[in-house]
Design brief:
The protein has 326 residues and is α/β, with parallel strands linked by helices. Helices cover 26% and strands 33% of the residues. It has a single domain, classed as FAD/NAD(P)-binding domain, CATH 3.50.50.60. The strands form 5 sheets. A 7-stranded mixed beta sheet has the order 7-6-16-17-18-15-19, with no helix packed on it. The chain has a 6-stranded mixed beta sheet with strand order 9-3-2-13-22-21. The chain has a 4-stranded mixed beta sheet with strand order 1-12-11-10. One of its GO terms (molecular function) is FAD binding.
Length: 326
């Protein structure tokens, strides 16, 4: 017979946003359960932009960037325009003055270890069913293991699928439908310390080198591509990132594939959500609306910034990929 256990907060997903939120709540004495699905089998590198450094410090994870097995310094971004011009965005020009490339598999594992050490309870599996109790004050999440977790607040940290929020009535609004294809991973001894981005009518391409010297090359296009490891890279957000008894963080709330702000978004939403949930008022209708508005405004700013850099170029594939919201 399946059991039902109680928690103060259930977090579905143990990526950077879910793990950091779980750590901060656990340190504050909150009974938090983090439902941890199997990590992605796809190795992946990701940029930590200068804007993310103070966020990681505030979240209690900045020291991880000092570990050379997790992070490699990144000097900035080199953009190779279709007309042949090369634009250099040096991270020294920004507050923080530096960036990093992190190995997401190792970095995420380190964040989960911190959350567990803080007292967060991790349960393997995924949320397979969500039921709001009749009194409206509790949400029961049935896990793939059969166990039920009953909590007044649930957090969607499931990434781009936003599986929990969508079960609770939110809709995913896509701005561009894009597909990412890993074109190769090679071991290099004298590799670039830059994120290199190039684009033409067909696709964006970017390459970066991680802490172990592996250089990844990715292609992002509106058209499905054969072979290799592929991932959904659509620019999208939820129509509302919070509601009665639930809140979405990280990629579940909003995702943009090109602005190098994925980790910054994960950390900032985790910080905001933890502050909100630990406040005297907690997650009520007003705070949920304010959070959802902030997520939407941040996403819109990111979209505008992307178009300032790439939108005027005839080679931008997103110019041809506008779709209606759904």
């Amino acid at each position: 017979m399946s059991t039902v256990e109680a928690a103060d907060v259930l977090i579905a997903g143990a990526g950077p946003a879910g793990a950091l939120l779980g750590m901060r709540l656990a340190r504050a004495g909150v009974r938090v359960v983090v439902v941890d699905a199997a990590p992605s089998a796809m190795p992946r590198l990701e940029i930590v932009s200068p804007s993310c450094l103070h966020l990681l410090e505030a979240a209690g994870a900045g020291h991880l960037l000092d570990d050379a097995t997790l992070a490699r310094p990144c000097a900035g971004i080199r953009r190779y325009h279709p007309a042949g011009r090369v634009e250099i965005e040096d991270f020294l020009r920004y507050p923080g003055g530096r960036g990093f490339v992190v190995d997401r598999t190792r970095f995420d594992a380190a964040l989960r270890a911190q959350a567990a050490a803080a007292g967060g309870r991790f349960m393997a599996g995924s949320v397979s069913r969500v039921v709001r109790r009749e009194d409206g004050r509790q949400i029961e999440c049935r896990l793939s293991s059969g166990t039920g977790i009953l909590a007044p607040v649930v957090v969607d940290a499931t990434g781009r699928p936003a599986a929990l929020a969508r079960r609770l009535g939110a809709r995913r609004v896509a701005k561009e439908r894009l597909v990412a294809l890993c074109e190769g991973r090679t071991q290099e001894t004298a590799s670039s310390a830059w994120l290199d981005i190039a684009w033409d009518r067909a696709a964006w391409r970017y390459a970066l080198t991680g802490p172990t010297g592996v250089r990844e090359r990715w292609c992002i296009s509106i058209h499905p591509m054969p072979g290799g490891q592929r991932a959904d890279a659509s620019s999208a957000r939820l129509d509302r990132a919070a509601g009665e008894g639930w809140i979405a963080v990280g990629d579940a709330a909003a995702f943009d594939p090109v602005t190098s702000q994925g980790l910054a978004n994960a950390v900032s939403t985790a910080l905001y959500a933890s502050t909100l949930l630990l406040s005297a008022g907690g997650l009520d209708a007003e705070s949920a609306r304010a959070y959802a508005q902030r997520v939407a405004e941040t996403f819109d700013r990111s979209e505008r910034a992307r178009r300032l850099v790439y939108g005027g170029e005839p080679g931008n594939p997103a110019l041809d990929s506008r779709i209606p919201a759904r």
